[in-house]
């Protein structure tokens, strides 16, 4: 990959690409462009698009910065599926340039993308385009391992778009293990959650946020899995038997999501009171959050949460003094 590259468009825009950062600077007649909706910087992100599927016929050269049309601040990215006529996807662009740089790559399956490792992580890679009728295992593997990528699931001409939610509903965590060994998944909390839920090892779900420092988006993924299981409980006798436990877990992870994304709202939830069982389950999670935090103000806030949760759980009262 070229670290720095200069390109000139037919309309006379000069584009300087800083490949190591995945950004570019656009100018015309010596005047630097500041993108629409930007933060005041002249740096503009260059989109990297990964096409996954055996039916894709390469249209653009792989792993090179290339110019594509920019129509009304929409990038026109061409692609071809098998013998079908050429099609395109549109991506938003903040530049007024008539053309704009992109980079593309092609992989037959998500497994091969994941095997490529760090080469396709970070800038400029931001999007993934999946062929129609993609295997459910490919979709789920991407959501687990590459949640930062924005996913486009294509449809056949004349067909409705396949549902990503439906694919999530049917895929099994054990399928992902069979796809390529389980050792790499041992440190992935989202995968571990899916595996525990698949095996109905629900008691291990409460321990998961203690063993891992979960991010907000990981909690959201876990809640998606729980929501699917709760929706399907009437159609599955096994799920029907544990429906109350599933709903309780959803409440547990719902509060954890609030703690991570809206601490003030979590404060209010503690003030309103929680049942002792839920408070007792959240207590070690908050302790883990405090032990992992490097921010002094966060540590104090987490300690206050510990104090309140300990009271709600019926534990022994301690002096309300923050840690030094």
Describe the overall structure.
Helix 5 runs antiparallel to helix 6 (203-211), helix 5 packs parallel to helix 7 and helix 11 (276-292) runs antiparallel to helix 12 (296-312). The chain is 41% helix and 20% strand. The chain has helices at residues 110-115, 136-145, 164-170, 173-180, 189-198, 203-211, 216-231, 237-241, 243-261, 263-272, 276-292, 296-312; strands spanning 4-8, 14-18, 23-28, 31-32, 44-45, 48-52, 56-57, 66-69, 74-81, 87-92, 99-107, 125-130, 150-153. Strand 1 and strand 2 form a beta hairpin. The protein is an alpha+beta fold. It folds into two domains: 4-171, no CATH class; 176-312, no CATH class. Strands 1, 2, 3, 4 and 5 form a five-stranded antiparallel sheet that branches. It is globular.
Largest beta-sheet characterization: 5 strands, antiparallel
Q: Helicity level, as a percent range?
A: 40-55%
Total strand segments: 13
Instruction: Detail the poorly predicted runs.
Output: 159-185
Average pLDDT confidence is: 83
In N-to-C order, the SSE pattern is EEEEEEEEEEEHEHEHHHHHHHHHH
Straight-line N-to-C gap? 49 Å
β-strand amount: 15-25%
Q: Compute the gyration radius: what is it?
A: 24 Å
Q: Structural class, from helix and strand content?
A: alpha+beta
Shape from CA axes?
globular
**Number of structural domains:** 2
**Helix count, per DSSP?**
12
Concise overview:
α5 runs antiparallel to α6 (203-211), α7 (216-231) packs antiparallel against α9 (243-261) and α9 (243-261) crosses α10 (263-272). The chain has helices at residues 110-115, 136-145, 164-170, 173-180, 189-198, 203-211, 216-231, 237-241, 243-261, 263-272, 276-292, 296-312, and strands at residues 4-8, 14-18, 23-28, 31-32, 44-45, 48-52, 56-57, 66-69, 74-81, 87-92, 99-107, 125-130, 150-153.
């Amino acid at each position: 990959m070229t670290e720095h590259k200069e390109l000139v468009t037919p309309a006379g825009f000069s584009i300087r690409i800083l490949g190591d950062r995945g950004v570019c600077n656009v100018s015309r007649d010596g005047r630097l462009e500041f993108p629409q909706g930007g933060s005041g910087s002249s740096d503009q992100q260059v989109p990297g698009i990964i096409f996954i599927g055996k039916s894709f016929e390469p249209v653009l050269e792989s792993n090179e910065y290339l110019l594509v049309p920019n129509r009304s601040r929409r990038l026109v990215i061409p692609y071809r599926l098998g013998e079908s006529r050429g099609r395109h996807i549109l991506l938003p662009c903040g530049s007024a340039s008539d053309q704009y740089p992109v980079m593309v790559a092609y992989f037959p399956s998500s497994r091969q993308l994941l095997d490529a490792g760090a080469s396709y992580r970070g800038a400029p890679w931001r999007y993934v385009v999946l062929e129609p009728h993609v295997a459910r295992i490919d979709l789920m593997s991407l959501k687990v391992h590459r949640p930062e990528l924005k996913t486009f699931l294509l449809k056949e001409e004349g067909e409705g778009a396949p549902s990503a939610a439906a694919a999530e509903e049917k895929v099994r965590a054990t399928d992902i293990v069979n796809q390529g060994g389980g050792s790499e998944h041992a440190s992935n909390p989202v995968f571990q959650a899916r595996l525990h839920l698949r095996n109905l090892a629900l008691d291990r779900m409460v321990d998961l946020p203690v063993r891992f420092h979960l991010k907000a988006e990981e909690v959201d993924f876990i809640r998606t899995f729980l929501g699917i299981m709760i929706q399907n409980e009437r159609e599955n006798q096994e799920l029907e038997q544990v429906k109350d436990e599933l709903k309780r877990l959803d409440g547990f992870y719902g509060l954890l999501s609030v703690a991570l994304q809206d601490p003030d709202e979590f404060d209010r939830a503690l003030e309103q009171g929680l049942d002792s069982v839920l408070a007792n389950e959240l207590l070690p999670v908050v302790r883990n959050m405090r032990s992992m935090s490097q921010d002094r103000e966060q540590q104090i806030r987490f300690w206050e949460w510990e104090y309140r949760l300990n009271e709600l759980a019926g534990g022994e009262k301690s002096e309300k003094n923050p840690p030094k």
